Amino acid sequence: MTWDLSVQNASVRVGSTVALAGVDLEIRAGEAVALVGPSGSGKTTLLRLLGAVLSPNDGEVRIDGKDVAGRSPAELRALRSRIGTVPQDLRLVPELRVYQNVAAGRVGRRSLFSLARDLLFPQRAALAEIHALLDRVGIEEKLYHRVDQLSGGQRQRVAVARALYQEPEILLADEPVSSVDPARARDALELLCRVAAERRLTFVTSLHHIDLAREFFPRLVGVRRGRIEFDVRSDEVDDAAIERLYSLSADELLEEGSSR
Amino acid sequence: MNTSPSPETSRSRRRSRGRAPSERLRVLAGIVLAAILAAAYLGLDPVRFFSQVRSWKVVQEFFGAALAPTLTSESGSGYFLLPQIWEGLHSTVLFAVAGMGLALVLGTVLGFLASSAWWEGELVDASDAWTDRAVRAIGPAVTGTVRVLIAFLRSIHELLWAMLFLSAFGISNAAAVLAIALPYGGVLAKIFSEMLDEAPKDAALLLRSAGGGAGTVLVVGLLPRALPDIATYAFYRFECALRSSAVLGFFGFPTLGYYISASFENLYYREVWSYLYALILLVGVVELWSGFLRRRQEFA
User: Cβ distance B249 to B257 under 8 Å?
Assistant: First the structure.
């Protein structure tokens, strides 16, 4: 069974800026959730909390019912090895081939020696598994291509395959539609939702495109200025709430103006 | 649309964000002025430069011989030169390969230690485990010490190292190999460490968030990003090692330089050119080989 996520009264401060201010969020195992809101609202910070890469200054994050804080580095690594992430900038190794980038996904459960062997002299079984994953994401013919020869959409598929090769319990994606051509936005979301549903993964993505979020996700969590603005079923979200989410207060307008 | 800049673009931006035009002009003027002052101090006079040549005949003979290299000895005995050329090439390559091989080992180990990638920044655990604390604590000291060692190795030219080892070992192969390996190892270490430090860390950080250990992630996520540049540079240094190895012959090692100096002393310029052309050919072959590998992009 996949993992549930729980954030309780979590705050994150970066220097003097408050990125998250007392956030509460419960996500059931196997649920698909979109975090929506303007850029800079704290969506990515929240994703980093859920991925156990960032710990909150206050409050707690529970993954699969267990508190993330106070874990040993080895326990933390074991936890992270089951959380697949598709970051906005994809973070592939462009000099390596597609199968090598996918194989690197299992970095959390491999020694340096066995991972190096997987990259340089891949075993038939591992290659077959990676090939099957690439088939699922629709680029099976790119197995031996170097990543820097692929298009943006294809690269994103490599990043998805890498996350899936981790055999994750949780899948996190940061603004997946902004990594691809606008015409491919729908494809990207369809792919992520499909693979998450197939494996019943707990799936959380940030998405500033509200219409796509409503179309693809049953549950929307609105984040604004480091707080949860709303947390509703997507067929219940009303236009007024969305308008509030994206409206700028007077001092925010001032900040926007001065930062240009 | 991708709103966040890719690591490549932010890197090139850092490079291109240079000085203001006026400042650039001042720097350029400073360089030119320094060159002129140095030349004046050394008494170099462009007008009288060619009138200082003692013997135009020698110049003419030497460059004339370039058009007529020979494969038979100019000594009049008429013996064939190819075996000597072959012997010279053969030793030149052997010393260069052995020296460069040792230099690569030195350069890789010292280069890694001299880089701050293994102890600085987000890649390293911020945890309280004693191993992580130890890495963070000794990292700066190790890197600092190794950088001093590297500077020492490469500030002494290979010919000076050769003189030192000659007095220690006499004419032995180890002397020539070490004379190449030490300064080359130092230069490779410096360049490798800079390339490692400059390589984009984004993929390595992602692999950390997938549960990878710091050491594994350095090798899998960071090293491949620097490897093509490192390999290209190592090939260039191999070309330099061939030339150094050839010149070491002037000290009596059996490389091309040995034969060149012997022919030169006898004023057999056509023989000299035969050896020089052999060296040029050798460097050309290495160039073709590295170009071929680069095109195949087989470094990764």
Answer: yes
